Amino acid sequence: xxxxxxxxxxxxxVDNMIFAFFLGMCSYLAVSKTVKTSLGLGxxxxxxxxxxxxxxxxxxxxxxxxxxxxxxxxxxxxSFILFIAVIAGMTQLVEMxxxxxxxxxxSALGIFLPLIAVNCAIMGASLFMQQRIQMQPENTQAITGxxxxxxxxxxSGIGWTLxxxxxxxxxxxxxxxxxxxxxxxxxxxxxxVGLMAMAFMCFSGLxx
Amino acid sequence: MSLFxxxxxxxxxxxxxxxxxxxxxxxxxxxxxAVTSQLKPAIVMGLSVTxxxxxxxxxxxxxxxxxxxxxxxxxxxxxxxxxxxIVSNILKAYVYxxxxxxxxxxxxxxxxxxxxxxxxxxxxxxxxxxxxLDGIANGLGxxxxxxxxxxxxxxxxxxxxxxxxxxxSSALMENGGLYLNNGMMTMPAMALIILACVIWAHRSINKxx
Lengths: 208, 209
Prior knowledge:
Chain A is mainly α.
């Protein structure tokens, strides 16, 4: 239980997808104009993460690694292709669900909904999970089972949502401020994210 | 159309400056920020992306007439993922230390927006040679920004370039000198701010937009 909690809290604050690893920056910068749409995208990302990380974990440990159902064959070099296929398939599913149940969110997210498939945060979570499988089991950050994967994916998704909602709230206010012309839009957004990342650095001493 | 006609020249020079994938189109930011705390991984990353963009552009351009429109994203992802797997194994074989430093970011080239952006916007409409040039140019445009950010961060953050000490160690404060490395530069947060400064400078110089 303690292990789940540690994984969960650390992946929100310390190993935050945006502020520590810059994953999912493209849609992060492009969609964070209003709080409502960014919350929707955050939920979609969290949902896709929650499914893909455990599925990729099972694929990695049961199929690709030697000692799985295929005997002693080491297929880990295929992991990139398999992971991206799982992610692309899941995104398609989420897209259909959102279109059916919330057409307004569907049109607000526009092209960025199918682009979740190429959102680095999703692929990144699977690749970090792959690294963490190899850690020693006594390490608090090691992933040793499906439960750990769910805790890690949920934490990463919530961390991503938290940061995109914060940025959207700041940008809504910033629309009224006087920014030098060449810095407008993208430039000032980068500086804002940099300052937010500095604020999040204070969590790095957190030990759990 | 000749191989080095004026149109192809424009295809090649555009992404290097006026249409830079990072500074203007805002694509591929994730890895641009994460691998630039030192110069060497930044250059390796830039080169890998250049190679992958060029060859995926060529492959997709060659088969563009046979790909059904509905499943093109999946086809593109598979082509890119295969190329990334090859590059990742080459890096592991020849420059293992850099490949450890880059860790997951090599795999994340698959989800680099520059690749998908170029495939969708260019390779699906143009022939293989133009697509090859476009891929090389976009990769290099990306690499330039990585090198600039990596240069500033490594020089100011650890006082070295390519791992070689540039600031003499006798000048450092712990050895009785007056200079102190800015440890903040090696932190992720400063990468964003340096990139913002690069974009600022780029937009001030190219005012005509």
